[in-house]
Amino acid sequence: MSLHTRIRQKLEEKKLRAADLARATKKSPVAAKKWLDGTSVPTAENLKVIAKFLGVSDDWLLYGGSDEQESSNNLAQLNVIDIEAFKQKYNIPDSEDAVKFVQAPAKPFPIQKRYVPVKAYSKMGMDGYFTDMGYDGNAGDGYVPTHTAGPRAYGIKGTGDSMFPAIRNGWYVVCDPDADLVPNEFVQ
Hints:
Blueprint: H1 3-13, H2 18-25, H3 29-37, H4 44-54, H5 58-63, H6 70-89, E1 114-124, E2 130-132, E3 143-146, E4 154-159, E5 172-175
Helix pairs in contact: 2-3
Pfam families: HTH_3
GO molecular function: DNA binding
InterPro entries: Cro/C1-type_HTH, Lambda_DNA-bd_dom_sf, LexA-like, LexA/Signal_pep-like_sf
């Protein structure tokens, strides 16, 4: 059954006419007649008004299926029943202590940032080998701000495009030898 057939069916059940539909949607009777003939489709905004006017859900008007708005009211109850069945199946008690979201204590994010010194320039060649740029560090290249680096952290200015787009030419990289290793992260 199509959209216009469902609209026509509900109008007949409620003993309403196309003029009543036009009045409810504040559209012309010609537009309402086109909706009922199937030569035009109502906009989403008009569809919501039509559904409310006919006492059905938007989904029923568009796709058919279970009748009336009762189906949308039953969905919430079905979800509750499914959750209760899930709890019984997996023996989950109703207490708040039943679920622990975090097993390990989360480290608080430091609010205050600190600065780490830029110790070197680096250049990775096309063959993958590190080239020392002859920079001893602490010669006035400054400091880089960071929130999470440890006390032994340092900065390196990257040159070249071998790591593009992850690390671009001229970007600073903060290296922290005390940091925990994370899969898929760069290691310096």
